[in-house]
C-alpha cells in the first residue's frame, strides 16, 4: 500500500473520531484542510496555468516549480512542469528531472510520458538514433497515438523513409483523425516523391486547421512540387499564425525565408 493511501486511511479514521467524540464542525474543517493539503500541488499548478494563459510566463514557471516540489505532487503535475521546461528550451533541467522520475515506480501511462519526454530531449540534443531506439521499445510494448506520432516523425528525421512509411501507415489505421499522424504520413509521401498522395492527406488535414507550423510548411512544399506556388505562398503565410516554441519542428525563420524565396520567384 502506498504512503498516500495510508495517509488517507489515517485521515479518515481521525476525521471519524473527531466527528463522533469531539465536534462535527471540527471534523468537517479537518477534512477540508486535509483535502486542500493533499491537492496543494494541483491548486498551485492551476494558479500557474492561469498566469501562463495571461502571458505572465516567468511568474507561471515559479508556480509550476512549486507544484512540482510539493510533497505528494501527482506525476501528472510533475510531467506538466517538465513539458513546460521543454517548451522553454531548458534541456538540462528537464533531463535531470526526467532521470529522477525514471528511477521511481510508475504506471504504464507515466512510463510512456517519461520516455516520450526523454526522447524529445535526445532529439533536441541531435541524438535522433537513441531517441528512435527509446520510442521503438515503447512501440513494441504499448500502442498509443502519441507514440505513433512521435515515432513516425523521428523516423522521418532519421531519413528512414521505408520504416517511416510502414509505421505511419499503421498509425493512420490506428487513428486517422490525429493531426500529427496525418501530417507524418503526408510528409512521408512528400519525401518519397508521391506528391498526389501527400496532397490528398494535407487537404484533409487543413480542414482541421492544425496548430503546428510543420503541417503548413510541408504542405507548401508539396504544392510547390505540383507547380502551385501561389497556393504554397498562402499556406506558408498561414503557418505564421501558429505558436512557435522550442519544440516546433519548423522555425519561424525557416518559413519567413521560404516566403521570401517564393515571392521573389513569382514576381
Structural class: mainly alpha
Highest-level CATH class of one domain: Mainly Alpha
CATH topology of one domain: Serine Threonine Protein Phosphatase 5, Tetratricopeptide repeat
Query: Shape from CA axes?
Result: elongated
Arithmetic mean of pLDDT: 89
Q: What is the helix tally?
A: 15
CATH architecture of one domain: Alpha Horseshoe
Model regions low in confidence, pLDDT < 50 over at least 5 residues = none
User: What kind of sheet is the major sheet?
Assistant: none
Provide the gyration radius in Å.
Answer: 24 Å
Q: What's the helix-strand series?
A: HHHHHHHHHHHHHHH
Alpha-carbon distance between the termini?
A: 71 Å
> What is the percentage of strand-forming residues?
under 5%
Percentage of helical residues? Answer: over 70%
CATH homologous superfamily descriptor of one domain: Tetratricopeptide repeat domain
- Per DSSP E runs of 2 or more residues, the count of β-strands stands at 0
Explain the overall architecture.
TPR repeats lie at residues 41-74, 179-212. Pfam families: TPR_19. The protein has 267 residues and is mostly helical. It has a domain at 160-267: Tetratricopeptide repeat domain (Serine Threonine Protein Phosphatase 5, Tetratricopeptide repeat, Alpha Horseshoe), CATH 1.25.40. It is built from 15 helices and no strands. The termini are far apart. The model has no long low-confidence stretch (mean pLDDT 89).
Amino acid at each position: 500500500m502506498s504512503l498516500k493511501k495510508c495517509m488517507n486511511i489515517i485521515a479518515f479514521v481521525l476525521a471519524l473520531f473527531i466527528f463522533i467524540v469531539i465536534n462535527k464542525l471540527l471534523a468537517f474543517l479537518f477534512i477540508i484542510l486535509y483535502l486542500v493539503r493533499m491537492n496543494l500541488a494541483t491548486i498551485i499548478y492551476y494558479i500557474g496555468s492561469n498566469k501562463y494563459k495571461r502571458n505572465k510566463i516567468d511568474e507561471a514557471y515559479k508556480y509550476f516549480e512549486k507544484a512540482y516540489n510539493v510533497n505528494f505532487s501527482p506525476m501528472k503535475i510533475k510531467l506538466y512542469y517538465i513539458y513546460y521546461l521543454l517548451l522553454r528550451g531548458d534541456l538540462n533541467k528537464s533531463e535531470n528531472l526526467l532521470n529522477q522520475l525514471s528511477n521511481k515506480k510508475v504506471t504504464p501511462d507515466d512510463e510512456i510520458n517519461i520516455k516520450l519526454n526523454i526522447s524529445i530531449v535526445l532529439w533536441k540534443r541531435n541524438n535522433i538514433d537513441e531517441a528512435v531506439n527509446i520510442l521503438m521499445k515503447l512501440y513494441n510494448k504499448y500502442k498509443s497515438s502519441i507514440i505513433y506520432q512521435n515515432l513516425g516523425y523521428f523516423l522521418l528525421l532519421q531519413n528512414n523513409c521505408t520504416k517511416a512509411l510502414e509505421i505511419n501507415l499503421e498509425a493512420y489505421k490506428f487513428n486517422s483523425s490525429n493531426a500529427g499522424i496525418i501530417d507524418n504520413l503526408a510528409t512521408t509521401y512528400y519525401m518519397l516523391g508521391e506528391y498526389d498522395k501527400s496532397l490528398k492527406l494535407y487537404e484533409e488535414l487543413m480542414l482541421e486547421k492544425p496548430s503546428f507550423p510543420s503541417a503548413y510548411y510541408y504542405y507548401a512544399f508539396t504544392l510547390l512540387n505540383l507547380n502551385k506556388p501561389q497556393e504554397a505562398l498562402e499556406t506558408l503565410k498561414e503557418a505564421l499564425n501558429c505558436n512557435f516554441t522550442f519544440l516546433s519542428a519548423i522555425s519561424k525563420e525557416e518559413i519567413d525565408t521560404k516566403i521570401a524565396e517564393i515571392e521573389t520567384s513569382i514576381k
